[in-house]
UniProtKB/TrEMBL annotation:
This is Nudix hydrolase domain-containing protein. Pfam families: NUDIX, Zn_ribbon_Nudix. InterPro entries: NUDIX_hydrolase-like_dom_sf, NUDIX_hydrolase_dom, Nudix_N. Residues 34-53 are annotated as: Disordered. Residues 133-256 form the Nudix hydrolase domain. Coiled coil: none annotated. Residues 34-50 have a biased composition (Low complexity). PROSITE patterns: NUDIX.
Length: 293
């Protein structure tokens, strides 16, 4: 659990660092680097059959498998450069959507404040700077009798498609508490959270997903107001062609791959959605900076 929480606590804007050992658990060095393309043709994303697009090499420690990830310029930052020991991340937020001050209602201007590096919406009356932060989506991957529980959405977007029970985290609750609440709201299921399974950042839409492994406290579930159907699926019957979002596709592929070789691990990764694609185009992504423990 400790090694999972150490990765879970980091954000998508991390740089190379050494994880300190705790007790008898030895942690390996994790580093991430990008390689500039050698020709202009490499700027065009290519389609790969593998879920994981980076080139990976593994160094095993007693408690953590550390991946050194080498990537060409990522899709969300085609002109970015970086040093061999760090990754340059580019924010995709659209501050210009904020036209009025959230404090006094005055009109905003868009400038880079002193001491900062990003364009912000600044109130022309009271001077308040508006900051935008990602939304946290939390949910549960529920295991029961070697099957997993999925819900068919009864709301847009992705009406009629399958998803894990998940939704936006509320103020005043922890990520695990939010995942338990969302599971009750969407599947009328009481669950016990077992461990974190995945943290998936989606910079283009400003979301971070945290998915927990969980089990049913009792074998009962039923559709909630936002679901038309709830069903247990075996690994071979997961409806990969009818999933609601890229995040669900990535999560379930990682889970099924883990199950085929043993037990589930903890995964961190960044889902870089192809700009201009809709939520229904769930395969229009690359999974970058993938690490697992």
């Amino acid at each position: 659990m400790l090694k999972a929480i150490q990765i879970l606590g980091s954000s998508s804007g991390f740089v190379s660092h050494r994880l300190k050992p705790h007790g008898n658990c030895g942690l390996s060095f994790v580093s991430i680097s990008t390689k500039p393309s050698s020709s202009s043709s490499s700027r065009t994303p290519t389609t790969k059959n593998s879920l994981l697009s980076p080139t990976l090499s593994v160094r095993k420690g007693p408690c953590l498998r550390a991946f050194r990830v080498s990537l060409t310029r990522c899709e969300s930052n085609p002109d970015g450069t970086s040093s061999p020991s760090s990754v340059a991340f580019q924010s995709n937020g659209n501050t210009r959507k904020i036209k009025f001050c959230q404090l006094c209602g005055g009109p905003t201007k868009h400038e880079i404040p002193d001491g900062e590096e990003k364009m912000r919406a600044i109130c022309t009356l009271c001077g308040k700077i508006s900051y935008e932060n990602p939304k946290m989506v939390v949910g549960c991957l529920i295991e029961h009798d070697n099957k997993i529980l999925l819900c068919k959405r009864k709301i847009q977007p992705s009406y009629g498609l399958w998803t894990l029970p998940a939704g936006y985290m509320e103020i005043g609750e922890s990520a695990a508490e939010g995942a338990i609440r969302e599971t009750w709201e969407e599947a009328s299921a009481e669950v016990e959270v077992l461990s974190p399974f995945a943290q998936l950042d989606i910079p283009l839409i400003g979301q971070t997903y945290i998915i927990f492994l969980a089990k049913l406290k009792r074998p009962h579930f039923a559709p909630g107001p936002e679901s038309s159907e709830c069903r247990l699926f075996s690994l071979d019957d997961i409806p990969f062609d009818s999933l609601a979002f890229s995040s669900m596709l990535v999560t379930l592929k990682l889970y099924t791959e883990d199950r085929k070789v043993g037990r589930p691990k903890f995964h961190y990764g960044t889902i870089n959605k192809r700009p201009g694609t809709s939520p229904s185009e769930i395969r229009a992504y690359t999974l970058d900076y993938h690490m697992l423990s």
